[in-house]
Structure formats: C-alpha cells, structure tokens
Write a structure and sequence with these properties.
- By secondary structure, this protein is mainly alpha-helical.
- The protein has 13 helices and no strands.
- It has helices spanning 2-14, 21-41, 45-72, 74-81, 91-104, 109-136, 149-153, 157-162, 168-195, 212-225, 230-248, 266-283, 286-315.
- It is globular, with a radius of gyration of 19 Å.
- The protein starts with a helix and ends in an 8-residue tail after the last helix.
C-alpha cells in the first residue's frame, strides 16, 4: 500500500507541468494591477502588499517543485522542452521573474534588480532557443496557438520594468523584437484559427493572450517615451478590441473543462486593466476611469474562479497526470 502511494506521488511529480508557471504570471498580473490601483486610483496599499508576498511564494514553491522534478525526472523535463507546444511555456519562468521585478521595483530595488537581470538573460536565451527550434524542426500548423506569443512577445515586457536598470538602446532592442514578432505571429495564428481546424478545447483560454501584446506594448512604449501619441493610442485600442472580442465570445469559455491553461485568462486582462489605469492617469478621461474599475473587478473575479478550480482539481488529483 505504501509502495503504491509512493509510486503515485512520484508519477505526479513526473507530470508536474511547466504550465504551472502561468499561475505566477496570473498572480503577478493581479498584484501589479492592485499596486497601480493604489498609485492611480487610491486603493488600499495592503492588497498589493499581500499579493506581492503571495506571488513570490507561488514562484518559489513552483520553482522548487520543478527543480525537484528536473533532478528526479530529467527526461520528463527534456521531453517538455522539446514539445512543440509546451516549449512556449518555459518562457513563463523568465516572464514571471520580469513581473516580480516590476512588483518589487518600488518596494525593494535590489530584489527587483536581481529578478530583472536574471529574467532578461533567461528570456533572451529562451527566445533564441525557441526561434531556433521553429527553424530547425518542421512545425505543424495545428500546433500553433496564441501560447506562441509567450516566448517571443514576452520581450515587450522587458522595458516595462527595465527603466533604470539598462540603457534605452537595450530596452528598445527587446521592444522592437517583441513588436515585430507580434505582427508576424498574429498573422500566422489568425490564419490558423480562421482557415484550419479549431484549436483543442484546452487551449481555448489562450485566446486571451491575444490581448497581451498590444496592452503590454502600450505600457512599454509609454515607459520608454513617456508620451501618448498616435502609435500608443493604436496599441491601446488594439488591446481594447481583443478584450471586447473575448468578452463577446464568453460562451466559448463557460462550458469547457478546467485546465491549468485557464490561468492564461488572467495576465492579459490584468495588462489591459493596468493600461486603462495608465491612460486614465495620463488623460483624466471619465470613461477610462469606469473601464479601469470594471477591468479590476473582472481580473479579480477571474482569479477567484481559476484559483478555486485549481485547488479543486489538485484535491481531486486531476492536475499533474499523464496526458
């Protein structure tokens, strides 16, 4: 009996998915949302502080578990790293670190600098590896999905937390790479969605990732140039369009079975909420004030629903199982 239980535990560790880092991305997005809500809307600071420690704890816990998996089941990690879809989620590690850099920037600068420098180096390496992987191995169109944005367009996040840590030339490099690949990959994925087979149900939540590139791109652009010009407005409005689109498609999401990829809901909507607050802060537009509150409420509600389902599925041992 004890041997069987031990074997089950080992198997669950072996199948601990790299997608778990999407949890950190989701919590990180929620944390930054409430930090900015404190700065620009007068929300209590305690909410952002509590979420900061919760996000850090989640990152550390998931990292320890995944490192343990690497030590005991190295072959399983290598298989994920060579998987045409799961490879994209390895960038969630570096993106989580870049988000922690943003979270700690106004709290503990040395901690922020550590996360930013390590996150940038790791993300640069993962970007190069992912593009090399695409070039060296033939990709099946049916494998393409919005999760492809994670390793490449994640470069746009670098400038958001990078002001003060690197010169503008380096930050502009990452911004340029991210925006270029957003356009290329968006055209490819839109073609796949419209003209080819529907995506697998478990990847439907990744449609929310379509919101992230223009929303984060807007934040990065304003950080770099400190102005709201025509290009900034275009990025903001594109993010708003995709937010309205996924809201209009709500029936596609309410009946699907829970997968850990549901956490893909959170980060993009959080990015749009932060963008709306920044636009309100810069323009004072009353509509943006209402939109900011609405998106903060939506992000919070999504996190509650997804966290509840995650805990429920962990208790039912529906996560960390072989597919």
């Amino acid at each position: 009996m004890e041997l069987s239980k031990q074997k089950c535990t080992k198997n669950r560790l072996e199948f601990f998915p790299i997608m778990m880092y999407a949890v950190v991305m989701g919590l990180g997005g929620l944390t930054i949302t409430y930090q900015k809500a404190h700065s620009w809307l007068g929300f209590p600071s305690i909410i952002g502080t509590v979420l900061m420690y919760l996000t850090t704890m989640a990152f550390m816990t998931i990292s320890v578990i995944y490192m343990t998996k690497y030590c005991k089941y190295k072959h399983a990690v290598i298989m994920e790293f060579n998987h045409p879809i799961r490879i994209n989620f390895f960038a969630a590690i570096s993106i989580s670190m870049l988000m922690l850099a943003i979270i700690f920037k106004e709290v503990k600068l040395p901690v922020s600098a550590f996360f930013w420098y390590v996150g940038v180096i790791l993300h640069f390496s993962l970007t190069m590896h992912t593009v090399r992987f695409w070039i060296n191995k033939n990709q099946i169109l049916d494998h393409s999905n919005p999760a492809w944005f994670i390793p490449i367009v994640g470069n746009v996040l670098v400038p958001v937390g990078g002001i003060g840590f690197a010169n503008p030339g380096i930050l502009n490099y990452f911004f340029s790479v991210g925006m270029f690949f957003w356009i290329v990959l968006f055209a490819l994925i839109l073609n796949r969605i419209i003209f080819h087979h529907q995506m697998a149900t478990k990847f439907m939540p990744t449609l929310f990732i379509l919101i992230a590139p223009p929303a984060v791109g807007f934040l990065a652009y304003v950080k770099l140039y400190n102005q709201i010009d025509t290009f900034a407005l275009m990025l903001f409005n594109m993010g708003l369009f995709f937010t309205f689109l996924v809201a209009f498609m709500y029936k596609n999401f309410i009946k699907i079975k829970f997968f850990i990829s549901w956490w893909a809901f959170v980060f993009p909507v959080a990015a749009m909420a932060i963008s709306s607050m920044l636009m309100f802060h810069k323009t004072g537009d009353a509509i943006l004030f209402v939109l900011s509150y609405a998106l903060i409420a939506v992000v919070t509600l999504i996190v509650i629903i997804v966290a509840y389902n995650t805990i429920l599925n962990i208790n039912d041992k529906e996560i960390c199982i072989e597919e």
